[in-house]
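User: Here's a structure from my thesis project, written as structure tokens. My advisor, Dr. K., wants to see whether a designed sequence matches the one we expressed. Can you design one independently, without my sequence as a hint?
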């Protein structure tokens, strides 16, 4: 199945509009190598992991023995929400760095099977990179470890990053610091390679770095409640990014189910959007289908303002993995 340069699927279903798909694409520091039999094999820089994947309900391209030969770590579930990492290769790191363009991300093994990045979101990072302009105001809700925040900030937007988990805010801030340090190191390396005028070259390079990449506004708060307060304050944004969990617990232990809050999220986002602003909403809940997104968003956006798709990732072995649903809207 072919994809165009934007990662959009070009198969018959997409062309006829039955089930539109968009594909996250691999980059030098990430590949979905293979998937199948309820698992996925991924390369993060030089580290290869095996993780459970409920959507991988097909046969893999390679044998499990081949996976084991390649992998450094495998996550073994102990319950529906937690588990442990089994070490396959001695001396494999438990924490490491990868890059996306000039952005740097710290990854680590967690008891929830995640490592700090959702690579299928590369489809949305492309969109943000292409659309966000200098000085625009971007609100990233349920913002996790900050990849989308950094992509927007790298375009010199004003970014508010909101998450209710302190560890995620800290992780995102560290990613920002890693990126800033990496950019500065690149400038110093360029100056060191210059035979003449090294100081001038370093200064010129530093001047061309995104100004105040560290100027992200970090907000430790319930994302929906913060957005609702922003609405009452009369604040507006040029882009809103939402990656809400399917379920979970709020700051005070209150239960969260996405299907119960979907309409409220879209209504609040719509009220916060300037004319011409964009909305990105990802959903992973099996109880929120494309029709639910269309019905909820259709109360506020016309059909020609909406883009509702499935999000997929291709594997190196030619398989394709469903990664959730995606809504984009322009006001």
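Assistant: Designed independently from the structure alone:
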């Amino acid at each position: 199945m072919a994809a165009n340069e934007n990662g959009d699927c070009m198969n018959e279903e997409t062309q006829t509009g039955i089930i539109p798909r968009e594909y996250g694409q691999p980059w030098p520091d990430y590949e979905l190598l293979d998937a199948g039999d309820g698992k996925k094999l991924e390369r993060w820089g030089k580290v290869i992991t095996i993780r459970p994947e409920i959507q991988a309900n097909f046969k893999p391209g390679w044998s499990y023995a081949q996976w084991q030969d390649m992998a450094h770590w495998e996550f073994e579930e102990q319950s529906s929400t937690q588990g442990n990492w089994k070490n396959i290769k001695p001396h494999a790191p438990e924490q490491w760095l990868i890059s996306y363009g000039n952005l740097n991300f710290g990854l680590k093994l967690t008891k929830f099977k995640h490592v700090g990045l959702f690579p299928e979101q590369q489809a949305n990072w492309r969109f943000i990179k292409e659309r966000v302009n200098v000085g625009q105001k971007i609100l990233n809700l349920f913002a996790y470890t900050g990849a989308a925040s950094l992509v927007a900030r790298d375009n010199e937007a004003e970014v508010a990053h909101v998450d209710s988990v302190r560890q995620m805010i800290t992780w995102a801030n560290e990613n920002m610091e890693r990126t800033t340090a990496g950019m500065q190191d690149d400038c110093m390396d360029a100056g060191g390679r210059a035979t003449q005028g090294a100081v001038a070259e370093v200064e010129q390079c530093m001047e061309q770095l995104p100004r105040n990449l560290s100027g992200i506004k970090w907000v430790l708060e319930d994302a929906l409640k913060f957005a609702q307060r922003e609405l009452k304050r009369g604040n507006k944004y040029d882009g809103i990014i939402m990656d809400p969990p399917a379920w979970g617990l709020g700051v005070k232990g209150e239960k969260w189910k996405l299907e119960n809050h979907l309409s409220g999220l879209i209504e609040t986002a719509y009220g916060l959007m300037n004319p011409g602003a964009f909305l990105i909403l990802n959903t992973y809940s099996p109880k929120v289908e494309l029709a639910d997104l269309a019905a909820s968003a259709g109360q506020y956006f016309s059909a020609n303002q909406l883009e509702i798709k499935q999000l997929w990732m291709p594997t190196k072995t030619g398989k394709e993995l469903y990664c959730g649903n995606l809504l984009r809207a322009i006001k």
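When you compare it with your expressed construct, this may help: Confidence is low (pLDDT under 50) at residues 1-16.
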